[in-house]
Write a structure and sequence with these properties.
Blueprint lengths: L1 H10 L17 E2 L5 E5 L4 H6 L6 H13 L6 E5 L13 H18 L3 E5 L1 H10 L10 H4 L4 E2 L4 E5 L3 H5 L4 H14 L10 H7 L5 H8 L7 H8 L19
Parallel strand pairs: 2-3, 2-4, 4-6
Antiparallel strand pairs: 1-3, 5-6
C-alpha cells in the first residue's frame, strides 16, 4: 500500500539536517479517502517523542475545534509541511520545506482531497506556490483565514494553526467561527438540485468556480440560499454573491 512505502521512506529520511535532531519523522495519518486534507507546519515536541500527529497541547485545541463542527479525526487526513520537529519550535527554513515537499505532494496526489485546509502561514504559502496563486491571492493570512478559495482544481481553506489560540487567546472567537465553516463544507446546499445555478453550469453557461465556492462550498454565504430560506423572491440570473448576470436571462 502506498502509505506504508511512503511512511518507511519518511522515517529514514536524511534529506536535511533536521534528521540529526529529531526522534521521529512523521508521515501523515488519517483517512486516505478523506474529503479534508489538513496541512500543519511541523511536529511538536510530544509528537516527535511519540511519532503521532497532533497529540500535544495544539492537538487538544484541534480536537475541540473539530468536535464543535461535528467532524471526527477519522474523517480527515492530517500531515505536516515539514516532517521533523523544528529545534526550539523555530520557523522552517526554505531548504527544509523544499526537502519535504515531494513527500507532501505524494500525499496530496494519493488522497486527492476535495478541500485542502492549511493550518498556519507556512502551509498557506506552500499551497500558493504549488498552485501558482501568489499573484492572485496576495492577502496576508489574517485576511484570508476562514475564506474558501478556488485554485481552478481544488478548494482551499486557510485557517490559523490551533497553536495560535494557545499563544493568543483573543483569537478564540475568530477561530471557532472560521473552523465552523468546515462543517458547512461537509455537504452541498440543500437547494442545489433544483437551483438554476446547477442548470446553467451543466449547460456550460456558468463557471465551475461558482459551484465549488457556493453550491458545493460555503453555501451558507450564498445570497440565493439566504433569500430562498426566507422565502424572498429572486431572479434566476442572480449569482450566488448577489450580483446579476444578464447573460443568464
Amino acid at each position: 500500500m502506498w502509505i506504508n512505502d511512503l511512511r518507511r521512506e519518511i522515517k529514514k529520511c536524511t534529506r536535511c539536517r533536521l534528521s540529526e535532531t529529531r526522534q521521529h519523522a512523521l508521515c501523515g495519518e488519517g483517512n486516505i479517502n478523506a474529503r479534508f486534507f489538513l496541512i500543519a507546519q511541523a511536529p511538536g515536541e510530544k509528537e516527535d517523542m511519540e511519532g503521532r500527529m497532533f497529540i500535544g497541547p495544539s492537538g487538544k485545541v484541534l480536537d475541540e475545534l473539530l468536535d464543535a463542527t461535528g467532524i471526527d479525526r477519522k474523517e480527515i487526513y492530517m500531515t505536516n509541511l515539514v516532517k521533523c520537529m523544528l529545534p526550539k519550535n523555530r520557523r522552517p527554513k526554505q531548504k527544509e520545506i523544499e526537502s519535504c515537499a515531494p513527500y507532501l505532494e505524494q500525499e496530496l496526489e494519493a488522497v486527492d482531497p476535495e478541500v485542502i485546509v492549511t493550518l498556519g502561514m507556512h502551509a498557506w504559502r506552500f499551497v500558493l506556490e504549488v498552485h501558482n496563486l501568489g499573484g492572485l491571492f496576495k492577502n496576508k493570512l489574517d485576511d484570508v483565514c476562514g475564506r474558501l478559495l478556488w485554485t481552478g482544481d481544488k478548494k482551499v481553506m486557510p485557517l490559523y494553526h490551533p497553536a495560535a489560540m494557545l499563544h493568543n487567546p483573543s483569537l478564540e472567537d475568530r477561530m471557532r467561527k472560521d473552523y465552523s465553516k468546515l462543517g458547512i463544507l461537509r455537504t452541498e446546499c440543500k437547494w442545489f438540485s433544483v437551483c438554476p445555478m446547477k442548470v446553467f453550469y451543466e449547460a456550460g453557461r456558468l463557471d465551475r468556480e461558482w459551484i465549488e465556492l457556493y453550491c458545493k462550498g460555503n453555501w451558507e454565504s450564498c445570497v440565493r440560499f439566504v433569500m430562498e430560506e426566507s422565502g424572498e423572491a429572486h431572479p434566476d440570473w442572480m449569482l450566488p454573491d448577489g450580483g446579476m448576470d444578464e447573460r443568464l436571462r
